[in-house]
Structure prediction request, 213 residues.
Amino acid sequence: MSGVFRSAGVVVAVVAAMAVGRVITDQVPVGELATDPFVEEGSLGQPVELEYADVRVERVRSAPFIVPATDNDHVVRAGGVFLVVDLTLTVTTEPTTFTEKTLVDSDGQRYLESDRARCDASGLIPAGVPWTAMLCFDVPADRLRGMSLRVGRQGPDGIVEGTDRRDQVALIDLGIDADEAELLASRQDVAYRGFQGGFHESPDLEEVTVTSE
Prediction:
């Protein structure tokens, strides 16, 4: 009799293990890889601590024009409005390249930095010293409300380049409510000079007045 009960116990244990395995594979299908990064949220003026860097948005500005850092004799006009984000990056581990610096609107739509404005030229950033960057995005004037900045070192699929490991990204609320969005969208005949980034430096905050000849 005891042998029968032992056998039954083994059968029950095996069936239970199979049931647990079914639950696990139903939730995380075999052969699929979760690629969404770990998001650390923050707000304007407050540092977001990632495992490899501290990220802080210093200020947010807007202008219809940008004077590219590489060509002070010309101005670039936005298709919508240039949203300018001044950012401080302090790498805490090893030299790092930030491959993602995008705006995210309230509907989840992402916006890349403007190639025409040529503001940011940050490449490999050494560790230990704050690096200042000026990011320029050409966005529709009616999408400013609720914008956030997303910053990370991983590629667009959420994976650290050259590995199969998920990574952290910072998602920083820029504090643009309805009133602030209206103010940012209303700027006229004003430009900022582009700034390609550097140590112990800050973007030129002086406005340049643009006049038509």
Observations:
- The chain has two domains: 1-32, 38-209.
- Residues 38-209 form a domain with the Immunoglobulin-like fold (CATH 2.60.40.1240).
- The mean pLDDT is 80.
- The helical segments are 2-27, 178-185.
